[in-house]
Amino acid sequence: MSASVRARRPATPPPGLPHVAPSAHKYPPSLSRKDGLDADQRREAASKGYGPTRRTHAPGGLKITSAEWKLLVIVLMVATFVRLFRISKPNSVVFDEVHFGKFAARYIKTRYFVDVHPPLAKLLITAAAFLFGFDGDFDFKDIGKAFVNTPYVAMRMVPATLGIATVPLAYLTLRALDCRATTALLASLFVTFENGLITQSRHILLDSPLVFFTALTTFFFVGFSNEDKQEPFTEQWWMWLVLTGLSLGAVVSCKWVGLFTIATIGVCTVLQLWLLLGDLRVKPRTWARHFFARALCLILIPLLFYMTMFELHFIILGSSGEGDAFMSSEFRQTLGRGMQDTYADIALGSEVTIRHVNTQGGYLHSHAHEYPGGSQQQQITLYPHRDENNIWRILNATVDSYPQYDYVTQPIEYIKHGSRIKLRHIVTDKALHSHDVRPPVSDVDFQCEVSAYGQAGFVGDINDDWVIEIEKGDKSDRESSKRVRTLRTHFKLRHLNTGCYLFSHKVKLPDWGFEQQEVTCNKNAAKKNALWYIETAAKHPQLPASAAKVNYKIPGFLAKFLELQQVMWTTNAGLTDRHVYDSRPLTWPRLRRGINFWVKDHRQIYLIGNPFIWWLSTASVLAYVLVRGFLILRSKRGYKDFENTKIVKYDTLCGFLFTGYFMHYFPFFLMGRQLFLHHYFPALYFAILLSCAVFDFATSALRPKVRLQIAAVLAIVAIWNFSKFSPLAYGDPWTKKSCASAQWVKTWDFACNEFLDDYGQYGGIQVPTPNKTAPVATIGGEPGGRAPIVVDEGEQPVIPEVNTAIPSGAVAEPGRDVFAKEDEKEVKSVAGGPGVPGAVDGERVVSVVSAEPTSDTPEKKEEEVRGETRVQGQKQRQSEPPALVSVEEPPASGAKVEEEVKIEEALTAAKPEGPLDHEEALANQVAHELYPEARDAPGDAEVGVQEPGDDE
Q1: Whole-prediction pTM value?
Q2: Cβ contacts of residue 803 below 8 Å, gap of 6+?
Q3: In Å, what is the CA distance from 237 to each residue of 32, 170, 297, 642?
Q4: What gap in Å lies between CA 877 and CA 869, rounded to an integer?
Q5: What is the end-to-end Cα distance of the chain in Å, rounded?
Q6: Is the peptide bond before 232 cis (omega within 30 degrees of 0)?
Q7: Which residue ranges does the record assign to the MIR domain (predicted)?
Q8: What does the pLDDT read at residue 299?
């Protein structure tokens, strides 16, 4: 019966009326309306200010309910507690706080420095320090050094706050990518309880701001892409695009790793433009608008933001500092150490200072110290500071009398190309000299030693003769290419006898040369290292009073900006030294090893990730690659998987996140520089989001309740892993047994031997402090007897009986900073005896190495004991007696040796200067016999801490 029933056809319209297609609506909308909105939708659009024909949509694709906002607030509170829990502990310097805290102090002191990282993150930390009263006096010198008068908590709050803000960004990004609320919640919990991100965000470091701005850029770009799908060139579309550009500028202004974020957004933008180009509905003019809008907001805005950060950097650092030596002479003129105008013309008899062009090493320099080997003649070096030992007189080498040329009364003779000259050192009256002797450091056949040779009244020999070869002049000064002109002419100095060229490179002399830069005469000299120029010239007697003067051309912002970028790039590529905790990219996804941040008081801070989150994210990346490859193979066999809307959705979603992961991870394989585990954090963020996207796909067919239960199990496992390793993130007490049970991978080198056996033992540990009110004992001082020695009995610290042995993996070292300078005492390099470092000529202080002023610290003030001022620094003893104190057993570690040296120096600090004579030696031995515990006890109350071996 039912089979005979035919479907009813729609009624045929009357003749003369147009054909109207059948509608599924019982009451079809008016034919005159083209917006497709019903009355309620039009009323909602009007309430938001939209026109009557505009379809509404959630800004940026964020369809978030009020319940989700409440849930997100709860997650944010949890993240705040996790990140800020006991953030004031430890109250001493941790890992690379050595560097970035020091940079904040330099900003506050306005002393110029150079770092391989852009300034934004450091400026944010400095702003917090300044607002909370930091005066820049704390030097952040060593790991484990206790903070004094330093708002370190406020400084740590900057990366901590940005670390907290990363949590809601993970949630909002996945929701904007059309993932379920359960998936977004799981991602936010993973970011909250990731131990590595927690550890890195609780200290004065740059990676937490970097990860935050990476996450912010990703969120803004996803919002822009959603707006672009709905309707381009609207106000919201421009807002999301501009915010993406600003965030790109911020991420690259924190670290150059932000370039990988720019590459990620760039790849996705190119893909968008490619798809628009293939859409025939998009007119070429419209496509051009899309192109120029993206170029403006994603290239020009980030570049302007980046340059603005460096403009602030230059404005703040307006005075001379430790970074001067890495910049050009023109650059240094802007740092408060400008040079007075100097005479432009150079002639025979001129007194000049000569600088090296390429290495920025400084001035051609000599001082009254000899080479320990070779000819043993007077040293020639490059010295970076202005000093009277840099002054030379140009003499005529074609005249055999002494003085060689009457430059006072005879007509002036300018120095031209091919002029044969001698250079006479003004202070020591010796000539610049070279001969066929190998240099002490660059001991190769084509290098010859350069020295200062001769004496007053000695005419010298042919080995003192040099030939000027003008290389180039300044375009603005035509004469500078014909004859030598101050600051304008670059020239080479060819040795007449051997044919080698005066040469310098970035090779430092040993301590006997005060670590100044080596100068040689090179027969195969690279032109860039054989170029010199004259910086200053005193008034020649034959020059009129109105003679022309010149000075450095003060560079503008753009010139300074480009020079600093070149210095940063060259230095960054040169960071190839090994570090005890560096690692290669292949080990990062497997979490093979962490970084020791801090060891002290039987506690440790060790950067290690949450193993469950880490390995799950790595597995998700591999799963996506395998599944994507499998789908590609299926498509080759004719399967239509990519016509399935569900697969297309998740392929696009996971493909975007995988692109972010790949662009932040793979480039590290191309780098030969020093790398650490924390370089993986931006890639880890994308891997975490990808793992949650895989979870969203895998549970898409399940009921919401089941999906929520699975997510809860994953979150609980992640939280359990977090709690398992939390003592390493917070520096909390831990036991040896718990530490050993947490070493799931044999390459995790926690300092388990540093922890105590039981938690109860931590309550009894007290940090020993010297008793300043204790009496003193005087040994010796009898009439006619041995010299008195004052021993402070109050400096015998009481050390708790605990195991203080430091395991082989427990030395916390900062990363390498090639711009850092070791703090050295001022070293003089002028007459006082041949070969004797530290000689002084009368009251004149010459050639000070490391002349940066330092402020008095509490450690220095404590050096005064009972009115006796202890002599700091190393003093050369002209004679030493045989061993005075017998050592019963060899020290167990390098730290023990350092501690015994400190104790011995403390016991002998009150000794008067000079050789250690027999009476003092006996008195010193008596002191050791009276106070054996002082001799054997460590000199520092910090247990388990060693000085970092390499100052980055």
Answers
A1: 0.75
A2: 753
A3: 29, 21, 12, 29
A4: 19
A5: 91
A6: no
A7: 343-397, 412-471, 481-537
A8: 96
DSSP assignment of 106-139, as one string?
Answer: HHHHTB----SS-SHHHHHHHHHHHHTT--S---
Supply 397's token pair. Answer: 């080498």
Does residue 150 carry a pLDDT above 90? Answer: yes
Residues 6+ apart with CB under 8 A from 668: 585, 675, 679
- Read off the pLDDT of residues 30-54 as tens digits, 9 standing for 90 and up: 333 444 555 665 665 555 445 554 4
**Pairwise CA distance, residues 488 & 328, whole Å:** 15
Cβ-Cβ contacts under 8 Å for 799 (sequence gap 6 or more): 768, 937, 938, 941, 943
Tell me what pLDDT residue 59 has: 87
Of 102, 144, 93, residue with least CA distance to 122 = 102
Cα–Cα nearest to 504, from 432, 456, 570: 432
- E strands, 311-362, are 342-343, 351-356
Q: What is the pLDDT of residues 152-164, one digit of tens each?
A: 999 999 999 999 9
CB 445, CB 513: distance < 8 Å: no
Which tokens belong to 228?
Answer: 């672009």
DSSP character at residue 699: T
Spell out where 165-246 has E strands.
Answer: none
Contact of 884 with 935, CB cutoff 8 Å:
no
Cβ atoms within 10 Å of 935's Cβ, excluding its own: 17
- Residues 6 or more apart whose Cβ sits within 8 Å of residue 212: 162, 163, 165, 166, 169
What the block records as the tokens of 329 is: 């002479």
- 400 pLDDT band, cuts 50/70/90, is low
Please list the residues that pair with 778 across neighbouring strands.
Answer: 790
Place of tokens 């002490």: 440
The answer to whether the CB of 419 falls within 8 A of the CB of 410 is: no
pLDDT (tens digit per residue) in 9-26: 555 555 544 444 444 444
H/E element, 452: strand 447-453
Helix axes 645-665, 611-636, angle to 10 degrees: 120
Decide if pLDDT at 778 tops 80: no
Beta strands 603-607 and 776-779 are unpaired
How many angstroms from the chain centroid is the CA of residue 913?
Answer: 42
| Enclosing H/E stretch for 517 | strand 517-522
Q: Does the pLDDT of residue 857 top 70, yes or no?
A: no
Residue 92: what are its φ and ψ, rounded to 5°?
-140, 170
432 beta partners: 452
**What pLDDT is stored for residue 820 in this prediction?**
62
Does the structure show a pLDDT above 50 at 610? yes
CB 517 within 8 A of CB 381: yes
Task: Confirm if 451 and 380 have CB atoms less than 8 A apart.
Answer: yes
Express each pLDDT in 48-90 by its tens digit.
445 554 456 788 888 899 999 999 999 999 999 999 999 999 9
Higher confidence at residue 246 or residue 481? Answer: 246
Residue from 402, 534, 407, 405 nearest 456 by CA: 402
Sequence length of the chain is 952
Q: Which amino acid is at 670?
A: L
The H or E element containing residue 275 is helix 258-277
Segment among 195-204, 707-716, 723-732, 838-847 with least mean pLDDT:
838-847
For residues 525 and 920, what is the distance between their CA atoms, to the nearest angstrom? 55
How many Cβ atoms are within 10 Å of 640's Cβ, its own excluded?
Answer: 9
Point out which residues pair with 865 in neighbouring strands: 868
Q: How far is CA 455 from CA 107, 421, 423, 837, in A?
A: 48, 18, 13, 21
User: Pairing relation of β-strands 363-370 and 378-383?
Assistant: antiparallel
How far CA 570 is from CA of 326, 560, 566, 673, 925, in Å, comes to 11, 15, 6, 11, 54
Domain 345-547 = CATH 2.80.10.50: yes
